Amino acid sequence: MYQNTQLYIAGQWRDSIQQQTLAVINPANEKVIGQVAKASLDDVEDAVQAAQSGFEIWKNTPAQQRAKIMQKAAFLLRERAAHIAELMSLEQGKPLKQAKMEVLSAADIIEWFSGEAIRSYGQVIPSRQTNVQSYTIKTPVGIVAAFTPWNFPINQVVRKLSAAVAAGCAIIVKGPEETPASPAQLVQAFHDAGMPAGVINLIYGEPAEISEYLIPHPAIQKISFTGSTVVGKQLAALAGQHMKKTTMELGGHAPVLIFKDANLDLAAKEMAAAKFRNAGQVCIAPTRFLIEKAVYEDFVEKLKNEVSQLKVGHGLDDNVDVGPMIHERAYQNIQKTIQNALQAGAELVCGGQTLEGPGYFIEPTILKNVPLTAACMDQEPFGPLALCIPFESYDEAVTEANRLNYGLAAYAYTESNSTCLNLARDIASGMLTINHVGLGFPELPFGGIKDSGYGTEGGSEAIEAYLDTRLVTVASRR
């Protein structure tokens, strides 16, 4: 069922020049299920050369034609969703239903950006003189280098890829070595839809080596990165040295503000699903549950009841809600994080245990009364761990929500319209969703502020990062 993954360069699937590979491991049973080609720097340079050739073709391709190819790719992705979801579940561990949802969501994203391709308007600027016409045009920035993580193998690629090709750019994607087959299937859909050779290139290999080669490369004009804040700052600094445009979607530590007038049943149900989706390995996962003291114990109990209904297991098994952690390092880190919090004085509400047998499985875990001295209150616990603490006043809740220098996503539940308006003003976050989980749709901005990055990968603003605005002003002489 699973297949080895090659590099995609100049419209062809091929092995690396040095014939090197990396093992792909199924996190549900710790077995090697395949190999992925490991690019050398010669392969990376081939990808750059291919992208330069592809860009010369693609930038001159009419936007309507670009849109049609993208729409066909979206159709093919939907048609192949069941197969791709199985590959993703095998290599990443997420439940099959979540994997299929990711594939279908990717098709929606491609369609959204196909529309943006034909709406990249310039403007006519009123002139000071009757014989002068001034206007702006939008042109593609050039070749994009995109770096993507393993937690959403298709979703993290498709946002960057779709915006780039909609704008008329060529792109080199450095995909995730842990989960290579599913992004390869995304690229295959574009290939089969008629994408010209060289416009899209997909490589795998040593992340630091590839980024240090691509970012300074004179052919690369735009960098897009999704990953940790630490690595993002390093890449942004390198890009800055070479005056490259950047989009950074980095880490988070999302607060959830539960007020006493909230619909607690709705909040518990939605937040349990959002927190433990993808085993908590989500940058926008709700993490710090700040609960008004009057309903604190009641909400914690409701959240516990919702979590107790989640089924943990292999992603391909029926009715599974929570799969394994991605690899042993992540598996060990979350165990250490839980133990550190307990030693600091947190109370275990449920979970916290590993599952017997192979696989990197951790029970969905809730801790309450977590002190600020616990490491998890400052450092993103990228796993199935919810942290609950009480608050007494609005100001106290907002202060804690904004305490960290992260600012990616935030959540809140309240029946008060005035509280909703105040939260919109006071919560320092790139995205805030109130009384529902409403993040990640193609038409909505997706991005953070502060240490969570800058730029957006959704909504009407997203394509702008892949376009240059140029001024033309012409004086008529007769």
Structure description:
This protein has 478 residues and is an alpha/beta fold. It folds into two domains: 7-250 and 453-471, Aldehyde Dehydrogenase, Chain A, domain 1 (3-Layer(aba) Sandwich), CATH 3.40.605; 254-441, Aldehyde Dehydrogenase, Chain A, domain 2 (3-Layer(aba) Sandwich), CATH 3.40.309.10. It contains 13 helices and 20 strands. The strands form five sheets. The chain has a seven-stranded mixed beta sheet with strand order 14-15-16-13-12-17-18, with helices on both faces. A six-stranded mixed beta sheet has the order 9-8-7-10-11-19, sandwiched between helices. The model has no long low-confidence stretch (mean pLDDT 97).
Short structural description:
With 478 residues, the protein is α/β, with parallel strands linked by helices.
Report the span from N to C terminus.
70 Å
Helix-residue proportion: 25-40%
Radius of gyration: 23 Å
Structural class: alpha/beta
- Count of strand segments: 20
Largest sheet: 7 strands, mixed
Task: Looking at this protein, list some descriptive labels.
Aldehyde Dehydrogenase, Chain A, domain 1, Aldehyde Dehydrogenase, Chain A, domain 2, alpha/beta, globular, 478 residues, seven-stranded mixed sheet, six-stranded mixed sheet, 20 strands, 22% strand
